[in-house]
Amino acid sequence: MTIGSRRAIHVFLGDYIDRGPDSCRTVDLLVERSQKYESVFLKGNHESFLFDVLRNPTQLRDWKQYGGLQTLTSYGLRPSLNPDPAEQTELIKQLAMAIPADQRKFFNSLRLWFVCGDFFFVHAGVKPGVALKNQQEQDLLWIREEFLSSEEQFGKYIVHGHTPVREPDIRLNRINIDTGAYATGNLTLLTIQGDSLLAL
User: Fold this and answer.
1) Is 68 helix (H, G, I), strand (E, B) or coil?
2) What is the mean pLDDT of the chain?
3) How far apart are alpha carbons 6 and 3 in whole angstroms?
4) What is each CA distance from 140 to 56, 82, 129, 134, 146, in whole angstroms?
5) What domains appear along the chain, each with residue ranges and CATH number?
6) Is residue 161's pLDDT more than 60?
7) Residues in CB range of 79: below 8 A, 6 or more apart
8) Is the pTM of the predicted complex or chain greater than 0.90?
């Protein structure tokens, strides 16, 4: 996001891992970028799954449906397609050791939302009828239809991803810029200057 001509803030909407062979390298690139540019990194539901698995290895059976095995592989681990409970525990123990300190700091610093001017940045969306300051993490990371079908004015213009669309979906109250890069190869960049939006 560009503010004026003197200061640029780069806002990332989450889901940096899973569903691809290079999750570890992707996080490395984001860490490097944060050292060069003023950046805000939001948490996505995929990062939430990572936190859940690190706390409870049995969650791996659910995480793998979202690409968790690819993430394990990117950190040098070799999971079987259907790891049993003992393997799950060992894999997550190895993963915890494989995540570098700078990446761990990155993951722990992820934010649920970011506000700049009239714009509210979030991974998935917000629950209609609930003030932005009172939104719950579950909705911010996972909500879909209730938010997507709402014509409510939320107090801020919502910039989000989470639900893949063929091209940026621009509405009066929100914009969805998730164009399914992991499957399509199309990654959308949104620039904001004043009240002008340009999706590339």
Assistant:
1) helix
2) 94
3) 7
4) 22, 30, 14, 11, 12
5) 7-108 (no CATH), 112-199 (3.60.21.10)
6) yes
7) 64, 69, 72, 73, 87, 91
8) yes
